[in-house]
Amino acid sequence: MKIAIIGGGISGLTLAWYLQKAGVPYELFEADARPGGNLHTWATPEGYLLETGPNSLQLSTELEELLADLGLTDQIQESAAVSQHRYVLRGGRYRQLPGSPPALLTNSFFSLKAKWQLLKEFRQPAAPIDVHETVAQFFRRRFGSEIVDYAVNPFMAGIYAGDPEQLLLHKTFPQLAALEQQYGSVLRGLAKTGKAAPRRRIITLKGGVQTITDTLAARLTSYQPGTAVTAISRATDGTYQLELRGPQGLAAAPGYSHLALALPAYAAAPLLQPLFAEAAAALAAVHYPPMSVVFSAYDQAAVAHPLNGFGALHPKVEGTYAAGSIWTSSIYPQRVPAGQVLFTTFVGGTQYEAAALQPEDVQKAAVHAELSTFYGITGAPRWQGRYLWPRSIPQYDARIMAAHATTDALAREHVVAVANWRAGVSVPDCIRHARRTAEALAAQ
Q1: Among residues 12, 2, 1, 430, which one has the least CA distance to residue 261?
Q2: Domain 110-194 coded CATH 3.90.79.10
Q3: End-to-end distance of the chain based on CA atoms, in angstroms?
Q4: Is pLDDT of 198 > 70?
């Protein structure tokens, strides 16, 4: 057995790490000189430590074990205590979102009608399983439209860059579908199962989340950065051959029993086209909306809002320019110069695609104007920066079903997928899936 891993993001690097630990031969090819893919930490000359991708990580068991394996446990940085507070824009001002189902009933965020709908959910029977049901349809059916508009919608836009009217429940939140089927009521199921599951710690690394992928890449014995896979073919004995373009020009790499796709669906599609046309078409259809990340720093004295939380999200019904902002300086004060506050604002995603691709100066000005309105900011920003993802987070909408089905079929051809379009979009999801894939391959 010899495995070719294509793509050096968190999924490909993790897969390689666990194959290496198991003694399974592999070679990992990454087209970029920098490892990490979407995990990218940006240290600016002005003294800001920024994340252009995931800003924080939920400390899952698999992530914690990986960090210990890499000797990075002492680099874990906890988020500030205020990060448990989340805000949502409602009626033109930020209001704290209740943090638990009981708090939903006692907090004034939702109307009496919405609270009554929550109470009725306990007595509402389970509906037949529908794999095509969207997140919005599920929550509207069980909890009502107000919950969808002011809780589900901003959460899906801010975390998944998605639209709950399009994202599939069984692909995005399969655990909620399972609770409905098992307990009849989702809230009853959460009450019975939630007590045994403690809240996961929200962390980063002292040098940024890219520390994880940098360390993984440095520990791998068969990692080839700056080497793009340009074509895949198959020999008469069934093994795979790769055409490579690297620092030394074109080269061929034959004799791989397995291929591991650890790159975006749109990048995997043309490689698969000559051998697996149906799979290539399914992967090419996966939607990646554009997303701009705009960073804005201000003198603390110029900002009226106390910024006592993780950040604030914007429901689509509020008609805002951006999907919301993370209050980076509140979560990790060490990441900005003293006396300043920093907003990480997200422009784009499925619900805001037109704004995502506007010129940088237009985006910066629009974000500053919106921040000034909602946070009571006086004066110009101390500093602004922008990072553009032309294709950001894969959407688990109706198009993902064919991609998942066809890659399940590809496993019979010794082709496995470990990227976030298959594993789940969070970093812990990717680590978990890559580790399990490595264990399954090693068992062969």
Answers
A1: 12
A2: no
A3: 9
A4: no
